Amino acid sequence: MPIPGGERLCVAGRHILGAMNGTSQLGDFLRMRRSQLRPEEAGVPTYGERRRVPGRRREELALLAGVSASSYARLEQGHSLGASPEVLDAIARALQLDESECRHLYDLARRTKPRSGRRPAPERVTEATAQLLEALGDVPIVIGRRSDVLAWNRLGHALFAGHLDPDAPDVPAERPNMARLVFLDAHTRSLYADWPGKAMAVVGNLRLVATQYPQDAALHRLLGELSAKSEDFASM
Fold first, then answer.
1. What is residue 15's three-state secondary structure?
2. How far apart are CA 236 and CA 233, in angstroms?
3. Where in the chain is the domain with CATH 1.10.260.40?
């Protein structure tokens, strides 16, 4: 119920008073809803262990939402630069929020004040870089921050993905992604004698990029896809 001087917070059909700032309320809301969800509801194995806190752990919730654990932790701690609508949608699905709770989540997120509202600029290869790529035979591909293939020469295409369209990097929506190839493409996976080492390096790079670009919706979609389709990626 609304009370003068307070804020109305809807959680599982109840209204709870809150008079704190937006980031604190957002963190409290996320922690409360996370604590109300049993791990077994999402197929998270507990192996009979006793948990110090009820509900799902942060890492489990982040995995279900397809976002990095560090990004989700910052949201709960009130240190986030501001979450994109795609990230909020993913978290809402993982928390199993109903329509009113989703609206409340968005209301709280809007009250936070990000230091910068700019999203990462689209990545592209300059003409000079493209010419250099053709000239250097031992540098076969140019990789973007999300591991998208921004460009490759004939050697790079033949080595990593000869079964794909050689012009694919020229179309942003169709660009091959090396992380996706390493985990989901049998041909690319077979190229590495130490595949586990390569896979861990890919995961480490994506974790770093997720910390540097918390508003990159395309990156969060990639993390969600890899988590859902690759048990290896999810376990790493």
1. strand
2. 5
3. 7-111
Provide the residue count of the chain.
236
Q: What is the CATH number of domain 7-111?
A: 1.10.260.40
Residue 66 has pLDDT above 90, yes or no: no
Nearest 10 degrees: CA dihedral of 67, 70, 74, 80?
A: -70
How far apart CA 229 and CA 226 sit, in angstroms, is: 5
User: Side chain identity at 158, as an amino acid letter?
Assistant: A
Q: Where are the alpha helices (DSSP H) in the chain?
A: 22-35, 58-65, 69-77, 85-95, 99-111, 127-135, 154-161, 178-184, 186-189, 195-212, 217-229, 231-235
Q: How far apart are CA 108 and CA 125, in angstroms?
A: 38
| Per-residue pLDDT reduced to its tens digit, 104-122 | 888 887 765 444 445 566 7
Which residue carries 């998208």 as its tokens?
A: 148
Contact between residue 191 and residue 160 where contact means Cβ atoms under 8 Å apart: yes
**DSSP code, position 121:** P
pTM over 0.85: no
Using one digit for the tens of pLDDT, what is the confidence trace for 5-27?
333 333 333 333 333 444 578 88
- Residue 115, pLDDT score: 46
